[in-house]
Amino acid sequence: MDKGVVVEEGAPEVFFTNPKEPRTRQFLSRYLTSIGTPDYVI
User: Fold this and answer.
1) Helix and strand counts by DSSP (H, E) for the chain
2) pLDDT at position 42, please?
């Protein structure tokens, strides 16, 4: 979401491995860096 608007939706494996929107890529880059790489599959 960006300012209350859904900017991307899809299957979790696509969302996390190949996001289409720049805002999603930016969010995941910051979030995954802060928590490390998960050792499980969603």
Assistant:
1) 2, 0
2) 65
| Average confidence (pLDDT) per 10 residues, the chain, 42 residues | 89 91 90 70 66
Residues in the chain: 42
Q: Give the whole-angstrom CA distance, residue 31 versus residue 18.
A: 15
> CB-based contacts of 9: which residues, under 8 Å, 6+ apart?
15
d(CA 29, CA 37): 11
DSSP 36: -
Structure tokens at 3: 């300012």
Q: What are the two backbone dihedrals, phi and then psi, of residue 5, each rounded to the nearest 5 degrees? A: -115, 130
